[in-house]
Every structure is written in C-alpha cells, then in structure tokens.
Design goal:
single chain; 286 residues; alpha+beta; Urate Oxidase; eight-stranded antiparallel beta sheet; two-stranded antiparallel ribbon; 39% strand; globular
Length: 286
C-alpha cells in the first residue's frame, strides 16, 4: 500500500539564480505482517498521510539532486526508519520545465514547460536485499512521414490490411531501463551527456538528410534498444513499449480532389502496441 500522486515544486536558490524541480511521487511499502488485513489490527500501519509528509520532508531536507537520487533517498529512509517495512518502492516523474534563454542568455529565474517526453525514475528495495534503480522516459511522441512500410506479413481469410511500402510511422513511446544495483552513478550525466533520449530519437529517425527505413514497429523498437545498449554502458536491461498512432487518408473524390496522402485524420482507437525487453546476457540470466 502507499500514497500516489504526491505533487510538489522544489525551488533551490543560488543567489539570483533559481533552479526548479516539479515532480510527482508514488511511494508504496509492504509490512512484515498482514494483521491489518486479516485482523483489523493497525498497530504497524504507517498512514499514507505520513508517507506523503515524509516525502515532502525529504524534499525539503535533501533537495532533489536527481530523480534517481531522490527515489533512493525515499527507499533508504523507509528501510532505516521503520523496522516493520520489508519492501519499499518509490516512483518519481518530472514536469519538463526548461530554463528560458533570451538571445542565447539563460534567464536566472524564468522557465518554460516543454513537454517533449516525461523523464521518470524508480527505486525499489527489499529488506536484506539490493537497492535497484530504474529510469526512463514516457509520453514521447515521435513521427516520420516516410521511410516506413509494412509488407510480407502473415495473411488469412480475415486479413484486410493492405501491404504498404511507404507510410507514416507515428507512435507514443514508453522506455524504461535498469541500472541494476548501481547507486553511485552520475544519473544526470547519463541523461544529459550519454543522451539516452537522443539515442531513442536517432534510432527512430535515422540520419537527418535521408532517414532510415523501418520495415515494422517491432524492428524500430529493437533498433532503439540496441543503440541505447551500445552507447550507454551503465544500462543493463531496457524495456520499450511503442503504441501505434495511425493516420487515415481522407477520400476526397466526392469533393473533386485527389488526396495523395496529404490530408489525414488520426485514428485514436483501437491502436496497435509493440513491447519488448532486451538486456545484456549476464543480467537477463541473473
């Protein structure tokens, strides 16, 4: 059990320059006993309101140096402060505030919300077990208007989908990776310098002057995973979910026009989804 959707803004000041982290936190714990469920005995239960207050106090006292470190701080607090807690899981996601630049000069205290994917982190720990750290990005919507097709698929009497050599490839992506038991990594360096997010975009889009052909959503998912694992050595296992966003070409013949895939309508449901988990062999076997 636990507390979901704990939302707050953490403001850090260094003289005139301000730094912001607006986050949403979910913290769940498991106790040594199930007596509150079986017997109605609440003597070991930490109220979810207390869980919320602890998260806010940790934000005040420790700040949020990185999402990953804050998730680690939450796990470590519950494991050290409460002997009845045998498992804790902390999820932290960030509102994408970016510092405003005016004529190339960074503003000291003004920000703009630029939702190009939501960064998140997760840490979990069992008592007497390792603390495991995850990170990722979600709600990242990507599109390329050519260099994608879908041909040669299995067909039977119920197949109505035509083969396509050229189509729009659009999807909403969820990507989550594991750092394993590593807690001393420079998580922001991995995010900003090793550029896991940029690896996703590069694998999806291909070279800027010509792109790269995608024969299926599945192959695109694999290409994303392979590129991240090849460029970011700290990542052990990576899960990718790509939800298809389909665009239907409008028939304009009754309007006396030929629509050469120029005007299309998005089809929200139903939608296809492709998911895969890929990892370095020694970690998957473990």
């Amino acid at each position: 059990y636990g507390k979901n959707t704990i939302k707050f803004l953490r403001l850090h000041r260094e003289g005139k320059k301000h730094f912001v982290k607006e986050v949403e936190v979910c913290t769940h714990i498991r106790l040594t006993s199930a007596q509150e469920y079986l017997e109605g005995n609440n003597s070991l239960v930490i109220p979810t309101d207390t869980i919320k207050n602890i998260v806010l106090v940790l934000a005040k006292k420790k700040g949020i140096p990185t999402l990953e470190q804050f998730a680690i701080d939450i796990c470590e607090y519950f494991m050290t402060a409460f002997s009845q807690v045998v498992y804790v899981k902390a999820y932290v996601q960030e509102v994408p505030w970016q510092r405003i630049h005016e004529n190339g000069v960074p503003h000291v205290h003004a920000f703009i919300c630029a939702p190009d994917g939501i960064r998140f982190s997760e840490a979990e720990q069992c008592r007497n077990g390792p603390l495991v750290v995850f990170a990722g990005i979600k709600d990242l919507k990507l599109m390329k208007t050519t260099q994608s097709g879908f041909e040669g698929f299995y067909k039977n009497e119920y197949t109505t989908l035509p083969e396509r050599k050229d189509r729009i490839l659009c999807g909403e992506l969820f990507c989550k990776w594991s750092y394993g038991e590593c807690r001393d990594l420079d998580f922001d360096c991995i995010w900003y310098m090793n550029k896991a997010r940029e690896c996703i975009i590069e694998a999806f889009a291909g070279p800027p002057d010509c792109g790269e052909y995608s024969p299926s959503y599945q192959k695109t998912v694999n290409s994303i995973q392979m590129l991240i694992l090849s460029k970011v050595s700290q990542i052990h296992v990576i899960e990718v979910i790509l939800n298809n966003v389909y665009y239907d070409v409008i028939d304009m013949k009754n309007l006396g026009l030929t629509n050469n895939k120029e005007v299309m309508i998005p089809v929200e449901t139903p939608y296809g989804s492709c998911a895969c988990t890929l990892g370095r062999k020694k970690f998957l076997e473990a």
